[in-house]
């Protein structure tokens, strides 16, 4: 058996984990690291969060932790078999091994087991179905480690069965493909066939769950390939994407934007032809207000608001920002520049500080302009002059300008 000795693995052994391990050992319950954290550790990545699996039932865990005076955090996981214990300022999420008894494509009813392979069988992908003993021993029933090394994404067992247990797994397949596979197009034909046959099942999955996965896909590798595939496999229509998405524009923008860390919505908007597409996405996926506004902004301005020819390419963006009365216009303009693939201009725009208009109504009163209406008109005229000067004119220059006006 393979034994992991990586520094990322050693680093997990905090005082908290040592205490948890001792408790389980005393009671002869088995405790192993499960799923995504194992995949990360084997890839040499430090896992963000760690799930543990155990042969102990929730009742046994509660009894063990309570009698040891360990605080339990109640976060509704118990009916699925998850207990969260807090030791040394650290939370430990520990789930009893389980078998899915009934699945409806969204949720599962589970019963507990002590059979590690049975628990691995109900997981989605081979690379996510491994366990790691606290001594570093790898338990791998479906060649997950082999797949991870050869960067292959496969379902555990029969693809269609896994998908029918939870249709969201179709999108998880895409997400992990974008994260792990070296090149686009390296799929098993029967997997793609199973996805196509079951695509309709995504219609019953909540928009929020879909959006979480879709955002990760949009920021991963091979995004152009994967979204094209969503159209080929008839998935797009069930997850809020337009039937006639602009795939040419999508291909162009995803290439431009690769190293600019765009927001997911910026990438996605390149599929859209107009604002209705943004509205329909929102109806299906319940995106945030900020995401919706960004989509509408990009659809509206991506063609007209472009760099100027000549020595001041940023001027149109600066002028737009100065005239805008809305919040976070600058972050929307950054996203627009990413969309347009303007890497250099983006850097300059991010470094540009918005100048403040140097003249106030108070200055005008001092010069003898008294009526509010006249002050308003004069300020607007001076603002226009200031803008024409590229925001360079100072107070003196502007006030002498006023005398001419």
Q: In words, what does this structure look like?
A:
Helix content is 49%, strand content 10%. The protein is α+β, with helices and mostly antiparallel strands and 405 residues long. The chain has a seven-stranded mixed sheet with strand order 3-4-5-2-1-8-9. Strand 4 (82-87) and strand 5 (90-96) form a beta hairpin. It is elongated. The relative contact order is 0.06. The mean pLDDT is 92.
CATH class of the domain at 1-150: Alpha Beta
Q: Quick check: average pLDDT? A: 92
What is the β-strand count? 9
Characterize the main sheet. Answer: 7 strands, mixed
Decide which structural class fits the backbone. alpha+beta
| CATH homologous superfamily title of the domain at 1-150 | Beta Polymerase, domain 2
Uncertain runs: none
- Write the CATH architecture name of the domain at 1-150: 2-Layer Sandwich
Tally of separate helices = 21
Distance between the termini: 87 Å
* CATH fold annotation of the domain at 1-150: Beta Polymerase, domain 2
* Proportion of residues in extended strands: 5-15%
**What overall geometry do the principal axes of the alpha carbons give?**
elongated
Q: Return the string of H and E elements.
A: HHEHEHEEEEEHEEHHHHHHHHHHHHHHHH
* Strand arrangement across the biggest beta sheet: 3-4-5-2-1-8-9
- Structural Rg: 28 Å
Q: What's the helical proportion of residues?
A: 40-55%
GO molecular function, one term: nucleotidyltransferase activity
Pfam families: PolyA_pol, PolyA_pol_RNAbd
Family: Belongs to the tRNA nucleotidyltransferase/poly(A) polymerase family.
GO cellular component, one term: mitochondrion
């Amino acid at each position: 058996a393979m034994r992991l000795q990586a520094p990322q693995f050693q680093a997990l052994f905090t005082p908290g984990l040592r205490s948890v391990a001792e408790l389980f050992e005393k009671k002869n319950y088995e405790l192993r690291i499960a799923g995504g954290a194992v995949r990360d550790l084997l890839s040499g990545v430090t896992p963000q969060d760690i799930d543990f699996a155990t042969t102990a039932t929730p009742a046994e865990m509660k009894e063990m932790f309570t009698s040891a005076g360990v605080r339990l955090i109640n976060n509704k996981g118990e009916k699925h078999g998850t207990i969260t214990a807090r030791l040394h300022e650290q939370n430990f999420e520990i789930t009893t091994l389980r078998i899915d008894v009934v699945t409806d494509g969204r949720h599962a009813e589970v019963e507990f087991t002590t059979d590690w392979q049975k628990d691995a069988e109900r997981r989605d992908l081979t690379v996510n179905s491994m366990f790691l003993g606290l001594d570093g021993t790898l338990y791998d029933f479906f060649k997950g480690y082999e797949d991870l090394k050869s960067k292959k994404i496969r379902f555990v067992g029969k693809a269609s069965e896994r998908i029918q247990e939870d249709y969201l797994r179709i999108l998880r397949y895409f997400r992990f493909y974008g994260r792990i596979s070296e090149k686009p197009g390296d799929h098993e034909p029967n997997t793609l066939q199973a996805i196509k046959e079951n695509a309709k099942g995504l219609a019953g999955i909540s928009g929020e769950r879909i959006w979480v996965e879709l955002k990760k896909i949009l920021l991963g590798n091979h995004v152009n390939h994967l979204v094209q595939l969503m159209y080929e496999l008839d998935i797009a229509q069930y997850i809020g994407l337009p039937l006639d998405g602009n795939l040419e524009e999508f291909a162009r923008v995803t290439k431009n934007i690769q190293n600019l860390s765009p927001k997911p919505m910026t990438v996605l908007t390149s599929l859209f032809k107009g604002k209705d597409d943004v509205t329909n996405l929102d109806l299906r996926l319940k995106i945030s207000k900020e995401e919706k506004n960004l989509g509408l902004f990009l659809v509206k301005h991506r063609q007209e608001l472009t760099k100027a020819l000549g020595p001041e390419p940023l001027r149109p963006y600066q002028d737009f920002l100065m005239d805008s009365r809305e919040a976070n216009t600058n972050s929307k303009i950054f996203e627009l520049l990413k969309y347009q693939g303007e890497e250099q201009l983006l850097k300059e725009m991010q470094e540009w500080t918005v100048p403040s208009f140097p003249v106030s109504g108070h200055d005008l009163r001092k010069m003898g302009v008294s009526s509010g209406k006249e002050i308003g008109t004069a300020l607007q005229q001076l603002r226009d002059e200031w803008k024409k000067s590229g925001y360079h004119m100072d107070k003196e220059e502007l006030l002498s300008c006023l005398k001419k006006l």
